[in-house]
């Protein structure tokens, strides 16, 4: 009989010296996905890529339309189709360049928009061939009913999820014009497809669940039936109304099925990150996050708190709150390589750095950015999350080790360069990355407060935001001064609730609790009788705490 005795508990020092658990292997398919994204990035950097993609899209669209239309003048008719398609493409390109964000105007995004339009045109083209074949085999089914089942609103639905509802509205308008031309349909069919597309766009806008496609499909079906009834009453033609309405209902179902299947095939190769991908990555059971909680538990809890702060601030100013929260979860995953050199994971991190030269400590602290990018790409994280890893530090100063280097420098030699102790950047390029930078610094600073009263929390938050603003870290994003004021109030509200005062447990005397806290190395709690004196000390110590915590990134 094999009797096993439990091992004695390890002392605290031995636990700190244990190596971090091995990182999880990259999931299957992540390497292929990373290869596709690198290939797309290489193509995007080539000058000939966008003109070549535009020419291919224009030629493919003209070919699809020409093969479905009668061409009485031969090549002259093809030229007319080309002129019409070229105008629509130029109008859409001008709309994107002038009125859409920079991310949408990237070459790969323009290629994705063209791909969605081509998919809908191809589906309409081959659907038209199937309709003609079915109309010969089943002559009792009206042609208008089968035509009503063509999934033209699919383009608006996909563009809404992949980009935004404004771009989807423009894309749907172009698709209704092109498909109406392809089918040689009357004005009523143009209105039919446009109303269905608009309803589909608004049905999926702002939604965060996979079932939204089928809800949108149901809404599209009802909108199709509504439009068909309206035109039937207007034209006094109700003979085929029932069959047409059934075709309109089938239209919505087909759109839902195709959108569900096509979305993953479109978002990953083109580097688009939809709300559904972010929801999947927000699962705390993801391999990277499970490794983070085991290797660097302090960093894990810091990331969760930063996610809460960033999400609340983003909601307050109308930014992408889900992206801020998920970006916060992964922004410090590089610390899993050397968790013992960061104070939130090991209490003796400061002593470890005392044995190292300031330049080496600076290199270890800054390296978590590069290592985080490597881990993120190994596991196939979207580029929008990878970009937030270096941007959440920007080009800020690692002030703690910079000051140590200055104090230890020989005055007879050259002075220590401040640029050598700054992060490589880039500075935050989006509002979400800037919010993450602010939330990351504020959470770390307020956690170090000895007496986190609301007044001291507000002082620290204001000091940090002002320091980051003066350091020009927010010059390349779209945050306004009004946004910073709203973000500061949001941070104060969340942190005040987090550091709330607890009541004394019944049966536990306050002096015993204070003694026990002192033995554990914690700050003893103040009695309620000290309330007036503590409030008076807030004014004296608040500025001092704010000045200490509001300095640029210390590195620990």
Description:
The chain has helices at residues 12-17, 30-45, 49-68, 75-99, 107-137, 143-148, 154-162, 165-183, 187-204, 212-235, 241-267, 275-281, 287-295, 297-317, 321-330, 349-354, 358-378, 383-391, 399-408, 431-447, 454-470, 481-498, 510-519, 531-549. The relative contact order is 0.07. It has 24 helices and no strands. The two termini are 51 Å apart. It has 2 domains: 49-271, no CATH class; 276-503 and 531-549, Hypothetical protein af1432 (Orthogonal Bundle). By secondary structure, the chain is mainly alpha-helical. The model is unreliable at 1-16 and 512-552 (pLDDT under 50).
How does the SSE layout of this entry go?
Elements lengths: L11 H6 L12 H16 L3 H20 L6 H25 L7 H31 L5 H6 L5 H9 L2 H19 L3 H18 L7 H24 L5 H27 L7 H7 L5 H9 L1 H21 L3 H10 L18 H6 L3 H21 L4 H9 L7 H10 L22 H17 L6 H17 L10 H18 L11 H10 L11 H19 L7
Helix pairs in contact: 3-4, 3-5, 3-8, 4-8, 5-7, 5-8, 7-8, 7-9, 7-11, 8-9, 9-10, 10-11, 13-14, 14-15, 14-20, 14-22, 15-18, 15-20, 17-18, 17-19, 20-21, 21-22, 21-24
